[in-house]
Every structure is written in structure tokens, then in C-alpha cells.
Design brief:
The structure holds three protein chains of three kinds. Chain A is α/β, with parallel strands linked by helices. Chain A contains seven helices and seven strands. Chain B is built from 16 helices and six strands. Chain C has a three-stranded parallel beta sheet with strand order 1-2-3. In chain C, helix 2 runs antiparallel to helix 6 and helix 3 crosses helix 6. The chains are: A alpha/beta, B mainly alpha, C mainly alpha. Chains A and B meet through strand 3 and helix 4 of A and helix 1, helix 8, strand 4, strand 5 and strand 6 of B.
């Protein structure tokens, strides 16, 4: 028997059925000239930098630039074109397709009421200049991007992992990283707290949420037939009162008939 | 002592032999007033903070990765757990982003119901903010009062969708249910009483000497800082920049209702407190206008788009084709067009954005969650410097950060 | 959920051996169960709501303490992530004996909906859990019921008995 081939570059979930003849529709890309403000902004950018592609999609302009220009373009946007916010900055993993990361800077201008996206492609090992001197909000966004994708940033004052622990292996949002983690991730807490030798005692993680074993009293309890941890199943009904019948010293036993039930909230 | 674990004392950031008189204090990740799992490494010069290093990620659950492995409808309940204090606003932000992606228009009644839910969530979130912030600063009474009113907002939401905390009350393409019987009456009762309660809070806090001393001129954010650090929501408006996405880039029916955008020019924590109170009043104002709008609408609550959305349950049960379509949409998921959108909404905390890159698959190729708290927490490293140690908690509480949102 | 049993008392044992006054001691313990203010995620909001005005946790003799040294029970309220797990274990170690653990919500029980690389699949891989609370998020009433069950459990225990791993629903 042969093992079925599975793609190694992209281990994310795939649709189990795809129509061969189905062509995905595209969100229309409008020319930049259709919007006066964006067109004038683009002219200013075009005069200074190399623009690879520019279009408007769903009301926001997308501009592709050279990765080396990123700091200057953002500086120009902030100082000359009054895009005063960098609201988001992250990456997209295209390593399987072209060995590149797509970096995007999502900008906002509160006086023009416009949002614009600056994009560039960088190779996997290429470094990207930090834009932290232009927008400080890039500080954590860049750290997150490094943590999640391994995009190397130069000129950042504190380039450490931000969301994952410092001793984490690999970058989780890459397409090569499985959703449930690699081996180092799956044993992370056991290795750290108890040590590797406890892996056998504690056992692997139960990742299948749908697995049910009726005789397993470690993981499951039968309602009204609860037994102690690990004891064999019993059909005897267990009492599920929360207080002992004989009562507890001083503590008043709450009876349902004594409780006052309000019809409406005061 | 127990010997089963091998954790070593945690001194990695502590230096005991320093030349200057600086002391390093580790704050969190478990601290009663860190609003979740914030860890701050504070370098103190006497009582003053000379360097602050926030450390987050203790609640990182891999939501963006989950989104890449889920069909769009499946991901909607996960958004509840982002900003768990106002879950509907996240549901709504995601639903709106997907609707923009596939180009869908939602029926008017669904819009009204969504706006009602959003505003109730805003009130609920602000009440929670007030309660915890006041508790951190030392006012236990406000905590009890604000939680009392917050329970009423949760009752309203529970009546609508059945959940207290994790609502999932919005669907892609509309809302799942019409308002239940008697809901408008209980909403009316609530919004008629809430202004009195807000008056009570203000009566307790506005001129309270301790409250004023703890908040005035504490955590001053200049407009330049707020812009550079990407602040949004009350943090931005508290610095005198009137930018409310509901007003400036209106979605749903926010261009049809009247409301003001409160702005504070004092730039300090006290100004932001007044701003939150005023925002609650504006939410009440919006809710009051929404009630007559609701009665004017026709009863459709889901958009009709068979390619992307299942038919109503009634049709699924009676019509064969609707059932087939529903089956395909549930098992395979909808396939939106190729392209990308970045859609923002004004969540109670600020600008909540969803960036979706779709490659025509049932799963998004990349989904980036732009959350306001993430940037506000990043700002703490500059905001806390120069403040007193005692004010750190007040500033963190005032920033209204939620960790489900920061770490995602 | 883990199947292992770690006998935490084997190393140390209880400092005092009580036999005849068991009942009195456990009566006292059960009616002053002090949880640690330990909020992890969404469930922490419900835990706060339980402590606040409508649900009023204090009437069970339950007062939230900010320090693990003063607390008896730790409510793992929310998703336990791998980055946080050493801190969780440390806090558990810092609780003074006798101590109990309530795992609140699906995330703490089994990892819940977050079946990802970053979450611990069940808090009982790290610490022994006494009561598992189902729900996402469990309502405040559920937490109160869990506390009542815990009180009952404490009253049936012997003060000097070895801590037996048990499970309840």
C-alpha cells in the first residue's frame, strides 16, 4: 500500500472536493483614475518611487512598491500626503508559490477619509527595514510579524518574539506549520514543567474532539451515573444533591420549595 | 516540597547587582488588576517608572491559524472569544468583512437588529470598563453598581440569542433570528432607566476627590502620540481627535441615526472617563431612534444569495434544492471571489479591522485581525514611562485592554 | 485529558494528622473556600460576574484572594496556553495545602474549540483537577453549583487522607 501524497509546503486544510472546471470570480480592480484623491496621491508617489502596480479594490487603493523603499514611501505618505495612521502591518506567506512574503501596510488618513494599502514582496531570507521611526505602531506589528512568519526586520530596537514563548520552535503562521503544532509544540508544557521523562507518564494530547469511548471513565462521566475517576462504569443512579441529607452544622440546607421565585425582576 | 516539577525560580529579568538605584519589578502575568494576562517588566527609579516592557502572548490561542483551517461560517464563533466583553461587535466585524468580500447587501431589519446589538454591547463593554477600572482604583461600590446594570444588558442579549458572553448573534448575510416577543419593551425599560444609573455613577465619581486625584493628569496622551501609536476609539478621542468610524465611514444605518461623537481635549484619564460616560449616553440615544426604525422594516432578516448563504430553515425543510445547497454550503463552505478586503468597524475599544485575503477557496488564505487593544498595549511602553508605580494600574485599567483581543 | 495520577502528597504529606476532628475541620474548610483571583480569558468575566452583585459569591463563604498563599482553591477560568502553563503550575505549587482546583470551561477542561498549537489540551495535564465545569462560557450558576459540589467533596474527605485523584461532573 502506498501512502497518499500530501503536500509539504502547505499543510493547511484543503477542501475535500473541488470542481475542476470551476473558475473563481475576481473582485474587480478599478483603475486609480476613478478616484480623484487616490489619483493625485499616486501621482506624488509615482514621481518619487518606482510603483509596480496600483489599483482600487473595494474602495481602498493598493500600491505595490519596492521593498527597499518602504521607509521612504511611508515617510512621504505621512508628511506629504497626510496619511497619519498606520493601522495594520503584517505579512502573507507565499513561500510555496514563489518563495516570497507579501508585506502589507494598511494606512489611514483621517483628514482625507481614505484608506490605502502599501504592499511589497520580499524573499524569505531578505531583511526588511523597520518603519518604526515613521509610525511607532509598527513596533509591535513588526515583532508579531517576525514571531509569526520569521520575517527578518533590521533596525528594530527590541526584536524578540512577542506572542510565542522565547524558546518556541518555528513560526506558527507559516503554511508549513500544522495547525496542531509540531512535536516540540505538542510536548512544550510537559517538557518545560516536568521534563522529557514525563512524556510517557502523561501521554500524548487528545486532539480528536469527537472520540468517545463509553467505558472510559477517565475522560467521560455518565450523567446521573457518575463514578470515581477510573472506576468501572456502573448503572446505579447517583444522587446529585449538592448538600448532605443530614445537614451541615449551622449551614442551612436549601430546599427548592422554600426558595422564593420572583416573577419579574425588581 | 513537591519535587515533581522542574520549574526554576524566575529571575531572568532581575538583576540584583546594579550600580544605580533602579529596581526591576515584574508585574504579572497573573495580577488581579492586569486585566487578564499582561506581564509588565517595570524598571523603577524610586517611585517612578523609568522603563516599561509589556510582555503579551499569554493568551495566544492561534486564531489566525484557525481561520486558515476553517470555512468562513465556522470561524464566526471563534470571533466571540476575541473581545469577550463585547462579543457581538467582533461577530459583526467579521460578518461585515465577509459580506464586503462577496459583495452582499443585508436586509434592513437585520441592519437595525445588528445596530441594536452593537450598541447594547457597547454599553455593556463600557459598564464593564467602568466597573473594573473603578475597582482597580479602589472604588468597590461602582463595581457592584455597574455590574448590576451590566447584567441587564446581558439579559437582553440572552433573550435574543441565548448566550450571555459568547453571543454569535450575527450571521454572514444577516442575523439568525428576529427579535423575540416583548424584547423591545424590556429594551425600552432598560434604556429609560440607564441614564439615571449613569447619573448615579457620575454622582459617585465625578467630584470624588480620590477618583480625581487618581485620574487627573495621569496617562496623558498627546495627539501626536495617539496618531503615531495607532490608537483608536476612546483612546484617540480622548486626545482631541474626533474620529469615530461610525460617523466618518458609516456602515449599516449609522448615517441615518443622529448621535454626537464626544471628544475630550484634556488628554488625561479623567477626560477619557467622561468620554466613556458620554458614549454610553449616545448609545442610548441611538437605541431610542432604532426602535421606531425597527417597526418600519419588512421582516426579512437574511440576505438572499444562494451561492453563498443557506436558504431559511423553512425552505431547507420543504424544498429539495434548498436542502442540497445547504448541504454543500455546510460541508464545503462558501467560495468567495479572489481578492482582499480590509474592513473596519468601531468596536467599543476602537478600530476593529478584519483583513481577509481570499484565493477563491472555502478557507481564507490569510485572515489578519486588527485589534485596537494590541496597539494600545504596545503604546504602554511609552505611556508608562515617567509615571508613578501606583498610577500604572490606573493607566492599564483606563486603556480598556482585553487580552483575548491582544493575543488572539 | 490526562490519565496519569501524580501523588503530590507522597513527597511531603500533610503536616498534621487529624482523625477524630476531621468533620469539624472539613466543615470549617468547606465553608471558607477562598479562591484565587486568577482570570485567564472569557470565563474570568463570568467568574467576576459570579462575584459581583447579582450572583454574590460571598454568601458561600467565598472571598477572592489576590495571593496564592491565602487561597485554597484555584479556578482555572479560561484558556490555558502553553506560554502560560509554567506560571499556572507555579501558582498551583504556591497554594498552601489543602488545595483544590476547579477547571472552568471547555478550554481548561480539554482545550475546547482551540485545538491549536498554542493551547494546553486540558489543564489536567499540568495540575490535578477536582471539578470540571462544562460550558463555553459556563454561566455563573454553574460555577456556584461547582463550588457547592466542591464543598460537599471537601466535607466527605478526611483531613489527613491522601489526596485521591477523582473526577466529578
Amino acid at each position: 500500500m502506498m501512502r497518499p501524497y500530501s503536500e509539504k509546503e502547505n499543510v493547511q486544510k484543503k477542501p475535500y472536493y473541488s470542481d475542476r472546471f470551476w473558475v473563481a470570480p475576481q473582485i474587480p480592480k478599478e483603475p486609480v483614475e476613478s478616484d480623484a484623491i487616490f489619483a493625485s496621491d499616486l501621482d506624488v508617489l509615482k514621481a518619487k518611487f518606482e510603483i509596480k502596480e496600483a489599483y482600487i479594490q473595494r474602495g481602498q487603493m493598493v500600491v505595490y512598491i519596492n521593498p527597499a523603499d518602504n521607509v521612504d514611501v511611508l515617510m512621504c505618505l505621512r508628511d506629504e500626503l497626510s496619511y497619519n495612521f498606520l493601522s495594520e502591518h503584517s505579512a502573507i506567506d507565499w513561500l510555496a508559490k514563489s518563495g516570497e512574503f507579501e508585506i502589507f501596510y494598511q494606512m489611514l488618513s483621517t483628514c482625507k477619509h481614505k484608506r490605502l494599502r502599501i504592499k511589497c514582496f520580499i524573499k524569505e531570507k531578505e531583511t526588511l527595514k523597520s518603519v518604526i521611526d515613521v509610525y511607532k505602531s509598527a513596533n509591535w506589528a513588526e515583532r508579531e510579524m517576525y514571531d509569526m512568519f520569521g520575517v527578518i526586520i533590521s533596525g528594530h530596537p527590541y526584536m524578540k518574539r512577542i506572542l510565542m514563548p522565547d524558546d518556541w520552535y518555528d513560526h506558527p503562521l507559516r503554511k508549513t506549520y500544522p495547525l496542531q503544532g509540531d512535536e516540540a509544540a505538542q510536548w512544550y508544557e510537559i517538557d518545560k514543567i516536568f521534563g522529557k521523562e514525563y512524556r510517557d507518564i502523561i501521554g500524548p494530547e487528545e486532539r480528536d474532539g469527537a472520540r468517545i469511548d463509553v467505558d472510559d471513565t477517565y475522560r467521560f462521566a455518565h450523567i446521573n451515573h457518575e463514578v470515581p475517576f477510573g472506576a468501572p462504569r456502573s448503572l446505579e443512579k447517583t444522587v446529585t444533591e449538592y448538600q448532605e441529607e443530614g445537614g451541615v452544622f449551622i449551614v442551612k440546607k436549601l430546599k427548592k420549595e422554600d426558595a422564593k421565585i420572583l416573577k419579574e425582576r425588581p | 516540597m513537591q519535587k515533581v516539577n522542574r520549574l526554576k525560580p524566575f529571575f531572568e529579568n532581575l538583576e540584583f547587582e546594579r550600580e544605580d538605584n533602579h529596581m526591576i519589578v515584574n508585574f504579572g502575568p497573573q495580577h488581579p488588576s492586569s486585566h487578564g494576562q499582561l506581564r509588565l517588566i517595570l524598571e523603577l527609579d524610586g517611585e517612578k517608572v523609568s522603563k516599561a516592557t509589556p510582555d503579551v502572548g499569554y493568551l495566544h490561542r492561534g486564531m489566525e491559524k484557525m481561520a486558515e483551517n476553517m470555512i468562513y461560517n465556522e470561524f464566526l464563533p471563534t470571533t466571540d472569544r476575541m473581545d469577550y466583553i463585547a462579543a457581538s461587535s467582533n461577530n459583526y466585524g467579521f460578518a461585515l468583512a465577509v459580506e464586503k468580500l462577496i459583495g452582499l447587501e443585508v436586509p434592513r431589519r437585520a441592519k437595525v437588529i445588528r445596530m441594536m446589538l452593537l450598541e447594547i454591547n457597547r454599553i455593556s463593554s463600557h459598564l464593564f470598563w467602568l466597573a473594573t477600572h473603578a475597582l482597580d482604583v479602589g472604588a468597590m461600590t461602582i463595581f457592584l453598581y455597574a455590574f448590576r446594570e451590566r447584567e441587564y444588558t446581558l439579559d437582553l442579549i440572552e433573550d435574543y440569542c441565548g448566550a450571555r458572553l459568547t453571543h454569535s448573534s450575527v450571521r454572514i448575510g444577516g442575523v439568525p433570528l428576529d427579535l423575540p416577543k416583548g424584547w423591545i419593551e424590556s429594551l425600552n425599560k432598560f434604556i429609560n432607566h440607564l441614564p439615571i444609573d449613569i447619573g448615579d455613577y457620575e454622582g459617585l465619581l465625578d467630584q470624588n476627590r480620590i477618583w480625581k486625584m487618581r485620574l487627573e493628569d495621569v496617562g496623558v496622551i498627546t495627539p501626536e502620540q495617539a496618531q503615531s501609536w495607532g490608537c483608536s476609539g476612546p483612546m484617540l478621542r480622548g486626545s482631541g481627535i474626533a474620529w469615530d468610524i461610525r460617523k466618518e465611514e458609516p456602515y449599516e444605518l449609522y448615517d441615518e441615526v443622529e448621535f454626537d461623537v464626544p471628544v475630550s481635549t484634556t488628554c488625561d484619564s479623567y477626560g477619557r472617563y467622561k468620554l466613556h460616560m458620554e458614549e454610553m449616553r449616545q448609545s442610548i440615544r441611538i437605541l431610542k431612534q432604532l426602535i421606531p426604525m425597527y417597526y418600519e422594516t419588512s421582516p426579512e432578516i437574511m440576505a438572499h444569495a444562494p451561492q453563498y448563504l443557506s436558504a431559511p430553515k423553512e425552505q431547507i425543510m420543504t424544498q429539495n434544492y434548498a436542502l442540497m445547497q445547504h448541504f454543500v454550503l455546510v460541508t464545503q463552505g462558501m467560495r468567495p471571489p479572489v481578492g482582499e478586503v480590509y474592513v473596519v468597524t468601531e468596536s467599543p475599544k476602537g478600530e476593529l479591522g478584519f483583513y481577509i485575503n481570499s484565493q477563491g477557496d472555502p478557507y481564507p488564505y490569510r485572515l489578519k485581525l486588527r485589534t485596537p487593544s494590541f496597539f494600545h498595549t504596545g503604546f504602554l511602553q511609552e505611556l508608562l514611562v515617567g509615571e508613578y508605580l501606583a498610577d500604572v494600574v490606573a493607566i492599564i485599567g483606563n486603556a480598556n485592554i482585553v487580552f483575548g483581543e491582544i493575543d488572539r | 485529558m490526562a490519565q496519569h495520577k501524580i501523588n503530590y502528597l507522597q513527597e511531603a504529606g500533610l503536616p498534621v494528622a487529624l482523625t477524630t476532628v476531621d468533620k469539624l475541620v472539613q466543615w470549617g474548610r468547606s465553608n471558607s473556600v477562598w479562591p484565587l483571583t486568577y482570570g485567564l480569558a472569557c470565563c474570568a468575566i463570568e467568574m467576576m460576574a459570579t462575584g459581583a452583585s447579582r450572583y454574590d459569591f460571598d454568601r458561600f463563604g467565598t472571598i477572592f484572594r489576590a495571593s496564592p498563599r491565602q487561597a485554597d482553591v484555584i479556578v482555572i477560568a479560561g484558556t490555558l496556553t502553553k506560554k502560560h502553563s509554567p506560571f499556572m503550575r507555579r501558582l498551583y505549587d504556591q497554594l498552601a495545602e489543602p488545595k483544590w482546583v476547579i477547571s472552568m470551561g471547555s478550554c481548561a477542561n480539554t482545550g475546547g474549540m482551540f485545538n491549536t498549537y498554542a493551547t494546553v489540551q486540558g489543564a489536567d495535564r499540568i495540575v490535578p483537577v477536582d471539578i470540571y465545569l462544562p460550558g463555553c462560557a459556563p454561566r455563573p450558576e454553574t460555577l456556584q453549583y461547582a463550588l457547592m459540589l466542591l464543598q460537599k467533596k471537601i466535607r466527605t474527605e478526611k483531613a489527613s487522607k491522601k489526596l485521591q485523584p477523582k473526577r466529578l461532573v
